[in-house]
Amino acid sequence: MKQVKILAVLLLFSKSLFAQYNLSEQHEYIIKEWQDAYGGQIYYAYNYPKTYAIYKELVAYSGMDYPIVFGQTFNWGQAHNGGLIIIDYSTINKNKHILAFVFAHEWGHQALGHQANIYNPNGSAWKYRSSPTQSEDEADVYSGKFLATYGYDLNTVYNYLYFLPVTDDHTHSTGKARAELVKIGYNSVSGSTGSPTTYPKIEYEIITVPCTHLSHPNGDLIPCSHLAHPGGDIVQCGHACYNPYYGNVPCHSNGDLIPCSHPAHYNGDIIPCTHLIHPYGDTKKIRKY
CA separation (Å) from 142 to 152, 177, 275? Predict the structure, then answer.
């Protein structure tokens, strides 16, 4: 019975993920196939404290939010059209500096518009590239800037990349070249000595995207008129997801949306988004590149 309950929670949360990020049917199919492959369990960045901390930093750094799901591609990770990011399970056990680099590299592909997503609807398939490694090189520089901004150790990442074995991969630069690209991004923020100096001015732009409020991805929660809970039917979440590394962790720590038990509207206080200031979508302030 306990396993059935856990599976039900995971399936419900997956539906919320699909609604929140407008994932394609292909992405939904991939994630459901992984659920079957991993015995009905699949984990996201917020299921592990170590990865959740990096995820939150990337959201704050970019002003964007992309779903990160764990699979095993044996490529560290992949960035897909629609905003989906896949990170290998094997990266979880790497030290936090390497892990932050992997996260930031794939996040950079999305933030820079290499793939079409809600922040970059057209992607950059049309963009002229001077070399076959240009997109990967840009993502490496992006990761270096992120690492410097949040105080990750450049030497650890540099040495890790520098000594990567040579392969026949023609879309990525060599490990030595990638180490230098990360260093360029890092030093553009921290200075050549690695000591923080004056940060460059960050520019932002305002864009309109589909409403993706995390607490209620299927609609907007209106103020509840019931005296017992005038702020709405949001309660503290008590669900816990188990993972083999950290034990029980919150499945959705931002709060659990429960159906309203009042006879007048037994299906809950959910209505379509009707914010007057942005009736056609939700406005977001994102980092400009």
Answer: 14, 15, 34
Is the C-alpha dihedral spanning 256, 55, 74, 28 positive or negative? positive
Can you tell me the mean pLDDT for 201-228? Answer: 57
What is the SS3 assignment for 204?
strand
Q: Residue 256 carries which side chain, given as an amino acid letter?
A: D
User: Mean pLDDT lowest for which of 9-13, 90-94, 272-276, 284-288?
Assistant: 9-13
Do residues 84 and 69 touch, judged by C-beta distance below 8 A? yes
Reported confidence tier of residue 194, pLDDT bands at 50, 70, 90: very low
State the Cα angle at 82 between 175 and 25, rounded to 5°: 125
> Which residues, 6 or more positions from 14, have their beta carbon under 8 angstroms from its beta carbon?
31, 32, 35, 42
User: How far is residue 82's CA from residue 63's CA, in Å, rounded to a whole number?
Assistant: 17
- Does the pTM surpass 0.70? The reply is no
Phi, psi torsion values for 180, nearest 5 degrees: -70, -35
Would you state the structure tokens that stand for residue 259, as one six-digit string?
């159906």
| Bridge partners (DSSP) listed for residue 86 | 69, 78
CB 118 within 8 A of CB 22: yes
- For the chain, give every domain's residue range: 43-203, 214-272
Q: How far apart are CA 267 and CA 246, in angstroms?
A: 35
Residues in the chain: 289
